[in-house]
């Protein structure tokens, strides 16, 4: 049976392990050991308990396992490359990787350097951890899988079929680059503002924030045009991006965004993977990015206090 290693046992990693386990070998890999008995609460409130195999990267070095069919990396964006380095000596370099990160930082870098197929996944499944042995699947959402050079359609279809059998609604797509940048654009408009102001997403609708949000979207829309990322929903320019952002704010009004959760837990944020590629692109193309840079340095200042 093809085994799936899941590197990074956070909320999405553990949800993936719970979902795949009944169908294939799924092994969680983290920096520390986890209890074998793991609890999953479904969106309907049902409680399920499963035994999930988990190892540390150090254990895999001293007791190697057969090389896996897929390695999923489900760490935060800035930890992706270090996580891959921690197992690179114990997997075949032709092993397919699946990168589940937000933003657009690790994906192009690893696509250039890893000899095997590098697939990217973007998901709107909602999940959060309740401790070392529990994860809550808070809401279902679609998952898309593709690769940046469109070279692995067969592999992506097979993986999407397995994931769909396992309860993810997964689709193989040929436009994953567009989708990753689109999610990044929405994250860039919402996450820094709510994280810096300590507010839930819906509060961005108030007068205190709406102007700054529109200023972020204006810079982002111009950058995405240069990156050949089409405006969402067949719309035109800045207004289409603004409409998408307001729609997500509306749909997630009660959410504490992931970046706000990071700030509250005094963890580094994913600003490097979300704002970083936008600022780099703006500088490459000679576009204004003063608002994005301001948000980035305000976040950096906060993180420096942790
Ligand atoms: O994806 C999100 C996040 O929290 O990172 C948004 C869209 C901002 C919803 O909360």
From TrEMBL:
Q: Which Gene3D superfamilies match?
A: N-(1-d-carboxylethyl)-l-norvaline Dehydrogenase, domain 2 (1.10.1040.10), NAD(P)-binding Rossmann-like Domain (3.40.50.720)
According to the UniProt entry, its GO molecular function terms are: 2-dehydropantoate 2-reductase activity; NADP binding
Residues annotated as domain Ketopantoate reductase N-terminal: 6-149
Query: An example Gene Ontology cellular component term from the record?
Result: cytoplasm
| Ketopantoate reductase C-terminal domain: residues covered | 175-297
Q: Which UniProt keywords apply?
A: NADP, Oxidoreductase, Pantothenate biosynthesis
Q: What does this protein do?
A: Catalyzes the NADPH-dependent reduction of ketopantoate into pantoic acid.
Give the protein name, as stated in the record: 2-dehydropantoate 2-reductase
The species is Vreelandella alkaliphila
């Amino acid at each position: 049976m093809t085994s799936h290693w899941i590197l990074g046992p956070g909320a999405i990693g553990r949800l993936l392990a719970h979902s795949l386990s009944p169908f294939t070998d799924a092994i969680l890999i983290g920096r520390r050991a986890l209890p074998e008995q793991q609890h999953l609460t479904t969106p309907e409130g049902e409680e399920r308990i499963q035994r999930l195999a988990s190892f540390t990267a150090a254990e895999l070095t001293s007791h190697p396992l057969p090389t896996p069919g897929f390695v999923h990396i489900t760490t935060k964006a800035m930890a992706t490359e270090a996580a891959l380095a921690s197992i690179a000596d114990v997997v075949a370099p032709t092993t397919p990787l699946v990168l589940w990160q937000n933003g657009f930082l690790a994906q192009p870098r690893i696509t250039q350097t890893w000899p095997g197929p590098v697939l990217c996944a973007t998901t709107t499944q909602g999940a959060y951890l309740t401790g070392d042995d529990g994860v809550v699947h808070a809401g279902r959402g679609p998952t898309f899988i593709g690769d940046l050079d469109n070279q692995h359609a067969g592999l992506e279809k097979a993986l999407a079929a397995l994931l769909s059998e396992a309860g993810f609604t997964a689709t193989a797509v040929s436009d994953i680059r567009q989708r990753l940048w689109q999610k990044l654009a929405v994250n860039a408009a919402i996450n820094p503002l709510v994280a810096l102001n300590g507010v839930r997403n819906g509060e961005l609708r108030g007068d205190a924030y709406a102007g700054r949000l529109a200023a972020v979207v204006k810079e982002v829309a111009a950058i995405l045009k240069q990156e050949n990322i089409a405006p969402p929903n067949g719309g035109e320019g800045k207004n289409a991006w603004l409409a998408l952002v307001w729609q997500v704010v509306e749909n997630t009004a009660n959410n504490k965004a992931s970046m706000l959760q990071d700030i509250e837990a005094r963890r580094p944020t994913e600003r490097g993977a979300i704002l970083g590629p936008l600022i780099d692109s703006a500088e490459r193309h000679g576009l204004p990015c003063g608002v994005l840079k301001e948000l980035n340095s305000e976040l950096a200042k906060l993180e420096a206090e942790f």
